[in-house]
Hints:
The chain is elongated. The chain contains four helices and five strands. The chain has a single domain (2-91), classed as Arc Repressor Mutant, subunit A (Orthogonal Bundle). By secondary structure, the protein is an alpha+beta fold.
Amino acid sequence: MKTYKANLSVISDRYGEMERRILGLLAESPQADRIRLPGGWDIQLMYLIKDGLLSVIRGNGGISIAGLPMHQEFVVTPAGRAFVDRWVRAEPVENVADDD
C-alpha cells in the first residue's frame, strides 16, 4: 500500500490529467506502442515527453494548417514502457523529474 501511495504521489504531482489518462491507457494496453492525437496536443503531454516516456514522431506526412499538423503521433519509449510496467506491478517508480 505504501508503494501504491508513493507512486500515486509521483504521478499526480508530476503529470496532468491528459498525461495520467495516457499512462492509464498504456497500463491497460501493454501492446500499445504508439498514440495518435490531434496536432498541437504535444503541449498536453509535455512532461511525458520531457521525461523521456514518450517521443514525438516528426514528419509523418499528412496535412498541415498554418504549420500545425492535423495529427501527431507519439511513440512510447523503452523508458516509458518500463515506467508503466513498474507502476502496474506496484513497484516503485522513480520521480524522473528529480533532475529538474
